[in-house]
Amino acid sequence: MRFTVDDRLFVLTGAGISAESGLATFRGSGGLWNGYRVDQVATPEAWHANPELVWRFYSMRRRDALAAQPNAAHLALATIEQRLGDRFYLCTQNVDDLHERAGSHRVHHMHGSLFQSRCVRCKAPFPDKALYETAASLPRCPDCGEPVRPHIVWFGEIPMDMEGIYRELGRATVVLVVGTSGSVYPAAGIVDIANQKGIRTIYVGPEEPLNADAFDEMIQGTATEVLPKFL
Ligand SMILES: [Zn+2]
User: Fold this and answer.
1) Ligand 1 centroid – CA 128 distance (Å)
2) DSSP 3-state assignment of 110?
3) Label partner for 14 (CA 20 to 30 A): which of 56, 204, 207, 215?
4) For each successive 10 residues of the chain (231 residues), what is the average pLDDT?
5) Which pTM value belongs to this model?
6) 109 among known catalytic residues
7) 57 C-alpha to ligand 1 centroid (Å)
8) Is 145:196 a contact under the CB 8 Å cutoff?
């Protein structure tokens, strides 16, 4: 299969594609991430209870992501984007920057970006690769003095720019979903919307997702095995 300029491609990528670059996920490890529990580090409540722990967790993830490299699946998507230009849109659930480092430009991080932070009050995100691993190093806004938090959508928060996501979905002719479990809404709902609109839907992953029945085509295999075949 090969995508052409007759297609308008909407791609949704999930943790599976980053996992193939060696980046851990909460899933598949009993809800633990190197010993951290989701509810201790990735919720607004966790942030209020213990910002130091939250920043230690995201500093670890920054360190891991900086050491990781884009894989064949990231590179394949960047090549498809080169071919399709603005008829390509990539929505990712991943917060790492491996898509960008592979050469993708039209990337929307619906769950935020690991390498951005924002003041809890001023709210404007800014680039940030620093590690904050001690109480003394916790960042504060240079403008207002309030705490700076990771620019991440935590559990219980609303994904970024859903309006833009639905707009792109509305004009797609093909939806390609790669490496998501099909269990996290609203991302999992994207395929339902695609079906309502009669858009062709393709799933790529090593295992059947929970919503496997919703797809027109299921291609079983890892993202690094399957995506280069689209070139
Ligand atoms: Zn501020």
Assistant:
1) 15
2) coil
3) 56
4) 89 95 74 80 96 96 96 98 96 97 97 97 97 95 97 94 95 94 73 94 90 92 96 89
5) 0.94
6) no
7) 22
8) no
